[in-house]
Write a structure and sequence with these properties.
This protein is mostly beta strands. It has a domain at 25-108: Jelly Rolls (Sandwich). The chain contains no helices and 10 strands. Strands 1-2-3-10-5-8 form a 6-stranded antiparallel sheet, with no helix packed on it. It is globular and about 60 Å long.
């Protein structure tokens, strides 16, 4: 008879929100290994990123709130595909939470290396 082992699991409700390079954005890294990153991201109201791009592929699934990505608004239940090397910026006027899955780029082979982005330095303050 096959012996079934207990699988590794994390309980996100028991994890603290950690800082990122963006002051209004926080993460819970659920899994980061083998070139794949799986995390929860929370944007405070008014949270934003600047236009940027990555050489890896990303999928983001909106759990709550709303996110404006490249000028289009997305709400709960929406899966957004971020192909590798595609510039984007994010704004969350009311705040929100989404799941992020980052994987090696199909054509670049580039893998995510730092879920927080802090290796690149803090984002510059928002200009008024």
């Amino acid at each position: 008879m096959l012996q079934l082992k207990e699988l590794k699991a994390v309980d996100s409700t028991k994890m603290a929100w950690e800082g990122t390079r963006f002051p209004e954005c926080f993460i819970k890294v659920l899994s980061f290994r083998d070139g794949v990153n799986f995390e929860l991201d929370k944007f405070e109201p008014g949270g934003h990123t600047f236009p940027h791009q990555h050489g890896f592929w990303q999928l983001r699934y909106v759990l709550e709130g709303e996110f404006i990505v490249n000028g289009k608004t997305y709400g709960p239940g929406t899966l957004i595909d971020f192909p590798e090397k595609t510039p984007y910026e994010v704004f969350s006027p009311k705040g929100g939470v989404w799941i992020i899955l980052q994987m090696p780029g199909p054509s670049t082979g580039e893998k995510p290396t730092d879920p927080t982005g802090l290796a690149y330095g803090k984002a510059p303050p928002k200009k008024s």
